[in-house]
Structures are given as structure tokens and as C-alpha cells.
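>> received
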Amino acid sequence: PYARAALRQFYMLLHQGKIEGCSLTTFETVTGLSLTTDEGGLRDELPPITTWLNRLLALRIETQNLLFEVFEQLMTAKIEGAIAAGNYDKGLETITAESIVVTDRRTVYSHPVSGAQSHVLTVARKDRIRPLGLVDALAIV
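>> returned
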């Protein structure tokens, strides 16, 4: 969601002429992407990030670097904002442990047509203790 939101903001800044080094007209002409309506407004349905990344390759290297830097700054700001607000979602994570045991399993949703179910699992996780050497332990204190 952060990349999508950053890309939407990127398109808005480009449309408003606020990205130095690349105008909306140049971007649309070189990439072949149409971001504006016939009335000149920004389209509701804008190209997804996969298309944007692919079309960036049509631009000169300097322009690619410039636009990707703008996008990266926007995405970083979105992520930092979510972290500060306490609602940052890391997404899917891999959990590694010495052992993981399912202690509870509950159905949280059943699709009314297909009957497919979504479950939430509660797990007990055991991690191996890794002793610290004296130097590392003293560095913590």
C-alpha cells in the first residue's frame, strides 16, 4: 500500500508540474502513458507501479534516476508516517524458531459462496538461547 500511495502522489506532483527536470508532457510522450483526462485533470485510474517501472526504462538514465529518487523519497515518507502513526504494516514475515506449536486455531471468516475459510492461529514459539560473550554483554550495559 505504501508504494501505491507514493506512486499516486508522484503522479499528482507530476501533473501539478512540481517535479523539476521532467514535465508531464515529456513524461507522457516518452513513456506512452496517459495520465490526464480530455479536460486536463488527472485520471482516476492511473497506471500501476509495474507499468510505471517498465516505462521508466524508456527515459534517459538521468531522468530515470531523478524520477526514481522522487518516488523513493515519497515512499520513505509514507512508511515513516505510518511508523510514527503506529499503523505500519510490515506485510508477510517469515518466522524462524527452534520450534513452533499451534496452540489455538479459530475461523475468522467463511466465504458465503465458496465456503473457503480464513483462520487465525495462536502459536507458542521457542527460540534457542544464544549466550553472549563478555565483551558483547558489556557493550549492552
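>> Strands lie at 99-110, 117-126.
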